[in-house]
Design brief:
Radius of gyration: 12 Å
Shape: globular
Distance between the termini: 25 Å
Order of helices and strands: EHEEHEE
Oligomer: single chain
Structural class: alpha+beta
Number of helices: 2
Largest sheet: 5 strands, mixed
Number of domains: 1
Amino acid sequence: MECLRFLVKGIVQGVWYRKYTSLAMNKERIVGFVRNLPDGDVEVVIKSSPNLDIQKIFDILYEGSPASEVKEVLMQECDKEYQFSNIFEVRY
């Protein structure tokens, strides 16, 4: 497993969700990115590592920003290759 892809559903666009998520992921030294999708969901892609705490990822994604309302977070293994920098970033 090279990476994990999460789909975050709910009120997650226009509420600073990506900013809060990137700050929390960087604090935990998690590499990956977050971006809005055209359907209103948010996509989060995480570079996998042996010591990755999946529960911590879910905690961050469900917490979001103060104005967000996360209804569901779906996780799957990546089905394509992604390029990662050395940090967690917001992509547009």
